[in-house]
Predict the 3D structure of the following.
Amino acid sequence: MNKQYAGLIIKAQSGFFTVHCEAGRIECRLRGQLNHKRLNTDLATIGDKVIIELLEDGTGIIKKVCDRNRVLARRPPSNTSVNKPRYKDHEIQQVLIANPDQAIFVFSCQDPTPNLGMLDRFLVIAAANEIPAIICANKVDLVGTKNAGSIFGLYQDIGYRVLYTSTVDKQGIQELKTMLPGQISVLAGPSGVGKSTLLNTIKPNLGLRVSEISNSNSTGRHTTVYPQLIQINDQGWVADTPGLQTLDFFDIEPEELDGYFVEIAPLVSKCAFSNCTHTHEPNCAVVTAVNRGQISEIRYNSLLQMRNQNTQE
Ligand SMILES: Nc1nc2c(ncn2[C@@H]2O[C@H](COP(=O)(O)OP(=O)(O)OP(=O)(O)O)[C@@H](O)[C@H]2O)c(=O)[nH]1
Ligand SMILES: [Mg+2]
Ligand SMILES: [Zn+2]
């Protein structure tokens, strides 16, 4: 009988998985029968805790994927057939990482222009999955701290922690570094915002591939192609993930979106109608708060836009 080990998937690349365990880093494949177990989700990805069997040739077979406590996931983009896995009639969620303890959503202050609508979507997904969220506003060197604050400050006002970082002048890097030990974190965001560069700056010998062009406003450029977890210390890992262009919700209904906007959620029960859409209804606590300047119009519009998009889907 071959030896078995409990381990953590740290890299996932087209059906091959690198598993970190007592026996080292083992290249593994999934056991065939596992393919039928889960109907609506990626079977295995980074962050999954697994049981592997070590074979004579030094590779391994993943025999069991342990239940996930939470996932950061989206609905796969519909314009790419390869990324749209289906199992019979079920649409399958694309898991960016399994079991994250926190998510760090990275956006650049400039190049590319920050897409706050996408940030709001990330925050909704994190809230829906009970993943603590931190915002990293990178490339602050390009706009200066004051301008960066005028873009991202509203998130601080509603209680999120915002790190202002630059890999050029090293601002905020130490702060980012102190947040990583002892837990599983994920860096996620659009392409070209500097996720891999941030990790190379934190861990200088890492050598992750980064885009050579700093002004990467062309769409479709993806420098990081496979997600992977990088070890920070004994229990501390941080995931570098490929940049996303779209972030569609999986399993989040339009009516529940207001509950995932942290500053709007507490007002919802104060609206006169329990099914209030916060648009035309009388005595809407949300609209009142927007009119009084207590809720940012950017966030309010973001909620309405998300709900419309989701209703159409
Ligand atoms: N000015 C400036 N440029 C930066 C900073 N951080 C990263 N860059 C540049 O931004 C470009 C993109 O960086 P990457 O690290 O490849 O971006 P990424 O988020 O990993 O992109 P994907 O892997 O495609 O998702 C590179 O040319 C970096 O040199 C920064 O703080 N300031
Ligand atoms: Mg990258
Ligand atoms: Zn309302």
Observations:
- The CA atoms of residues 13 and 172 lie 31 Å apart.
- The chain has three domains: 4-65, 100-240, 254-312.
